[in-house]
């Protein structure tokens, strides 16, 4: 199904015609219309801060310290900060409130290029993201009606719509509706490691595609990361030299999001830096 030429509103009109987690309180202390500083590199050391507390993580294997709640037979993925660059209407960039969810073309699988009036493609190691969404309140059954908004930084650590030089771009952002099996797929690039954060991808889960047009309807905001070995391999590729330096100064134990555990947020990886990677993760939500 090709959504490249449709906005959420257009798609939804066509369709009509035919637990709060551990960091929820930090979801936009800045205020819905707070103007955030636009940085040369999208992520600052405090830009994605979710908490200053750590609770027993090993910081190496990700097998302890995770605080995702359990409902039914599966653990709900931890609630995380959306960071300062969500572009979901909850904050502002240099031009005012920014909401990519209302932009024509946001419902798409391939998020490597900007859409609308821009066509810039973000370079980098190819990455396919496959999320399997399940509902912990329904016996962990596949949540086929849910939708996911996903975004991350580019190869240089910049976030489209916010960071200097890419405020007019909207690449590496997109919305997908889960299929009957609860699966969503995004084609993208391997994100950078910028100062202060381990490599990661942000996403929001919505109960339906119809409700994905407003951030007020999100039922979970979280992040996922990648095995260290994969990061090292990917960053040996051309264009990721800054990530090599930044990753050498970081660890999961020091990361302000994953330091208390990340076993529910560690993607399973296949592939390689030449042919591209596939990241797979099961995401349990309670709705």
UniProtKB/TrEMBL annotation:
UniProt-listed SUPFAM superfamilies: Aromatic compound dioxygenase (SSF49482)
Spans annotated as Disordered: 48-96
Domain Intradiol ring-cleavage dioxygenases residue range list: 120-197
InterPro entries from the UniProt entry: Intradiol_dOase_C, Intradiol_dOase_core
Alphabetized Pfam families for the sequence: Dioxygenase_C
Protein origin, superkingdom: Bacteria
Listed GO MF terms: iron ion binding; oxidoreductase activity, acting on single donors with incorporation of molecular oxygen, incorporation of two atoms of oxygen
PANTHER family according to UniProt: INTRADIOL RING-CLEAVAGE DIOXYGENASES DOMAIN-CONTAINING PROTEIN-RELATED, PTHR34315
Name recorded for this polypeptide: Intradiol ring-cleavage dioxygenases domain-containing protein
Organism field: Pseudoduganella plicata
